[in-house]
Amino acid sequence: MKGKSMFKNRFTKTFGVRYPIMQGGMQWVGRAKLAAAVSNAGALGCISALTQATPEDLAKEIQVCRDLTDKPFAVNLSILPSLTPRPYDEYRQAIIEGGVKVVETAGNNPKEHVDVLRAAGVKTIHKCTSVRHALKAVEINVDAVSIDGFECAGHPGENDIPALVLIAAAADKIDIPMIASGGFADGRGLAAALALGADGINMGTRFMCTVESGIHENVKNHIVQAGENDTNLVFRTMNNTSRVAKNAISEEVLAIEGRGGATISDVSHLVSGARGRLVYETGDVDHGIWSVGMVQGLINDVPECKVLVDRIIADAAAIIENRLMPSLKT
User: Fold this and answer.
1) Do 171 and 198 contact (CB within 8 A), yes or no?
2) First-residue to last-residue Cα distance in the chain
3) Where are the chain's structural domains?
4) Which terminal residue of the chain has fewer beta carbons within 10 Å of its beta carbon, N or C?
5) CA 42, CA 23: separation in Å to the nearest integer?
6) 36-75, pLDDT tens digit by residue?
7) Contact, 23 vs 54, CB < 8 A?
8) What region does 73 belong to: left with phi over 0, alpha with psi -120 to 50, or beta?
9) pLDDT of 228-246, one tens digit each?
10) Separation CA 128–CA 149 (nearest Å)
11) Is-above-0.90 flag for pTM?
12) What's the rounded Cα separation, in Å, for the pair 288 and 278?
C-alpha cells in the first residue's frame, strides 16, 4: 500500500475523514475557525462546547463552523465536577440540533450522553487516561476512544504511564478505533502511534501553534521557543493532576502544594478559568495557568493547518515506506 492510501483505516472510515488525525477540543482554544481549518485539511476538527458561555452560544459556533467547512467536525463535551454545574443536557441538545455527527466526551462517565447521542445518530469518542477507563468506555458503547499518555496537556490521570507503553497496552485489549493522544506533533509520532496499534493521533498543543488558532501570537511564540521540560504538574497532591505551562503562576501553585495539606480553595485565586482564558486573549503567559504538553519541545513553527497536516502525512508515509518497510523485507 503506497502513499496517502496507507492511512485509510477504521478511524477514517468510521468518522468520514481523509486522514487519521484529530484536533483536541481544548478549552478556550477549540473554536470554529480552527476546527473548520483542521477539517478542511482532511483531519477531524473539534469545537470545545464549554468554551461557549451558553448552549445558545454553542449553537451559533456550530453554525459558524458549518459555514466554513462541509467536512465532518466534532464537538468536545467535557463532563466535569464543578461548584456551578453547566447545563450539559442543553449543550448536548444544541449539538444534536446543529447536525454535528461526532462528539468527544471527557471527564465523568458519559453513558447518559452516549445513549442519547447514539439514538440521534451521533458517534462518540471518549477520552481516557488508562486502559481500565478505555475498557469501561467500550462497555457503554462509544464508537472510539482517545487515550492520553502521561505526556499530554491537561489531565494525564494519576498513573503516570507514558504513551509508548499505554497505547500498546490499550491496543492489546481494545477492539474499537483508538486515537493516541499526548506527545504527538509530526509524522514520526503518527508512524509510531500506528505501529503501537492506534488508529491515529489526537493533537492539541500542535494545533494551538497554527495560523488559524485564535490564541494570541505571544502564546504561540512562547510554545515554539519552549522545550519539553517547560511544563509543570499541578494539583498532584489533590489527586487531580494537570499538566500546564511552567510560569510564575504554576510555580506559585507548586510552592503552595509543597507546604502540605493544600486544597483547591488555597489556590483558587491563582487557577481560575478566567485567568487562563486571559492568557490566550492577551498574550500574557504569566497571567494564569494554561494547558500545554511536553510535545512543545518538538514544535518549531506556526504553519497553516493544511500545511501541517499535509507535512505530517507525507513524513509519516516516508517513514513507513522508506524506513520500516525495507527493514521488514530484509
Assistant:
1) yes
2) 18
3) 3-214
4) C
5) 11
6) 999 999 999 999 999 999 999 999 999 999 999 999 999 9
7) no
8) beta
9) 999 999 999 999 999 999 9
10) 9
11) yes
12) 8
Do 182 and 201 meet the contact criterion of CB atoms below 8 Å apart?
Answer: no
Rounded CA separation 52/61 (Å): 8
Residue with cell 486515537: 179
Q: What are phi and psi for residue 309, nearest 5 degrees?
A: -65, -45
**pLDDT-based confidence at 1, cuts 50/70/90?**
very low
Report residue 69: phi and psi, to 5°.
Answer: -150, 145
Helix axis angle, 163-171 relative to 187-196, nearest 10°? 40
pLDDT bin (cut points 50, 70, 90) of residue 6 is confident
Q: List strand residue ranges (DSSP E) for the chain, in order.
A: 21-23, 45-48, 73-79, 102-107, 123-128, 144-148, 178-181, 200-203, 231-234, 242-245
Task: Sort strands 178-181 and 144-148 into parallel, antiparallel or unpaired.
Answer: parallel
The dihedral sign for the CA sequence 201, 123, 95, 307: positive
CB 174 within 8 A of CB 205: no
- Nine cell digits for residue 103: 462528539
| Placement of cell 518497510 in the chain | 325
User: Is the distance from CB of 173 to CB of 131 less than 8 angstroms?
Assistant: yes
Residue of higher predicted confidence among 83 and 293: 293
Cell of 89: 443536557
Of the CATH numbers 3.40.50.150, 3.20.20.70, 3.40.720.10, 3.30.830.10, which one belongs to the domain with range 3-214?
A: 3.20.20.70
- Residue 173 CA to residue 213 CA, distance in Å, equals 35
Average pLDDT (88-116) is: 97
Give the phi and the psi of residue 44 in degrees, each rounded to 5.
-105, 105
Contact 179, 74 (CB under 8 A): no
Task: Specify the amino acid at residue 102.
Answer: V
